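The record is given unchanged here:
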Amino acid sequence: MADQLNGKKIAFLTANEGVEEVELTEPRKAVEAAGAETELLAPEAGDVQAFNHLDKAETYAAQRAVGDATAEEFDGLVLPGGVANPDNLRTHPEAVQFVRDFFAAGKPVGVICHGPWTLVEADVVKGRKLTSWPSLQTDLRNAGAEWVDEEVVVDQGLVTSRKPDDLEAFNAKIVEEFEEGKHAAQRS
């Protein structure tokens, strides 16, 4: 349905380097195809260097620094993966606070692959069921989450997936959750 997200604005938050390209581009295409406006944010406005695993891919323009944006401006958030991306992102207090603010507001969030590292830093996984790239399971369990090895998991507006092979299911669920909007139980 090309109009199910009309009037909605979705933030995509990445580090300025290290995002897995397909985990940025495919979800962004999916929410735009459903009618949403998207905005790419990063710790610094300007270039975001994407990767295909360990090889450099395209660069994308971050329209604003995350510190210049607020969760109130958006209806949902996507945190793509890539190993270096969330590891870097979680070192930026303004990015971590931006994520926390989405949970505090009960807004839907989609996270794939290594992206949950940022959720751990934001302290929003305790008591939640989610999935990720398998190497994060210990980190997530230590932070109080119930980790499962499933293609896509939805927990009160939080959508998580494991890897690029899960993108079709992930994209369908983020569009569905963004359409539903706020979830009272999503709050941190």
Remarks:
- The chain has one domain: 9-181.
- The longest strand covers residues 55-62.
